[in-house]
């Protein structure tokens, strides 16, 4: 079967290819940034370390061995050095700072498993970004094709045999 393209079909093909190329160059860097990891060193602040030392000192004076042991373990973990945590390149500096302050540093001090902000961000942001890319890239050319096909179909209905 031979497929014929008239002038309107050829125009649609050219416009669609240009449209897809334009949106690919606009959206591809944004999607790439979501999947692009960046490393960030995380360590408790000096204020948090001093707070742990104060707790240790208070427990020592009150002869509370259990609190002293817990605080000294937390201090050893916290002062062991920075921990490398992976974030997405698309995350802003304020977002990274907030996650470090509220989730990662307390996990380091408590000796808990450090949350993975990269996976959470990618799962949260990647699907909507890719869906928006597909809709905005393929939607208008397909809509234009359907509109042209509908107009041609209507015109054929008014032809006299």
Shape: rod-shaped
Q: Please bin the fraction of helical residues.
A: over 70%
**Strand composition percent:** 5-15%
Low-confidence stretches: none
Quaternary structure classification: single chain
- Summarize the biggest pleated sheet: 2 strands, antiparallel
- Looking across the biggest beta sheet, what order are the strands in? 1-2
Task: State the secondary-structure class.
Answer: mainly alpha
Distance between the termini: 26 Å
Give the topology string: H per helix, E per strand: HEHHEHH
Q: What is the alpha-carbon Rg in Å?
A: 29 Å
Q: Kindly state the number of beta strands.
A: 2
**Mean pLDDT across residues:** 81
Total helix count? 5
List keywords for this structure.
single chain, about 160 residues, mainly alpha, two-stranded antiparallel sheet, 5 helices
Brief digest:
The chain has 161 residues and is mostly helical. It is built from five helices and two strands, in the order αβααβαα.
Task: Note down, in words, how this protein is organized.
With 161 residues, this protein is mainly alpha-helical. It has five helices and two strands. The protein has helices spanning 7-35, 46-61, 65-78, 93-110, 117-157; strands spanning 37-42, 83-88. A two-stranded antiparallel sheet has the order 1-2. Helix 1 runs antiparallel to helix 5 and helix 3 packs across helix 4 (93-110). The model has no long low-confidence stretch (mean pLDDT 81).
SSE map:
Elements: H1 7-35, E1 37-42, H2 46-61, H3 65-78, E2 83-88, H4 93-110, H5 117-157
Antiparallel strand pairs: 1-2
Helix pairs in contact: 1-5, 2-3, 3-4
